[in-house]
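Support request, please re-run this one:
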Amino acid sequence: MDVRDEEAVSRFVERFAAQLTEAGMQRMASRVFARLLASDGGSMTSAELGEALQISPAAVSGAVAYLTQVDMVSREREPGSRRDRYVLHNELWYETFTRRDQVLTLWEKTLREGAAGLGEGSPAGARIAETAAFFEFLQGEMLGMMDRWRAHRATLDLP
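Re-run finished. Output below.
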């Protein structure tokens, strides 16, 4: 069994969390998510997260509330205990992109209705119609990409 270099784990967590924050995720949620990702079991208790990240229970609670709301983690009760564990979803990235596809469908519908209401011949209507067409294209590409990912993942030597 490999010995974990906790300093390397910490560097990874902070670096990836910073990138997630730059992409728009809340800072503390980014840190908690990255730390869960770096845990061997993909789950940790509030106390474990607080200790690993040197943050307060309130900070853990707020971050987990956000991550739960956006379906990136779930809360599970430890058998025979009052403690909750925060768990990454299986196939997290696949699920995240699938949910994003649902959002894009909703946006595309609203954009198409907006373009029709504004008149596709008007500058605003044309811009909105182009945005709707982009989301439609993106969805088609994402479906194909997810199919290719599943086929590719099957060829990888992953647990």
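Residues 123-155 form the longest helix (33 residues). Strands lie at 43-45, 73-77, 84-88.
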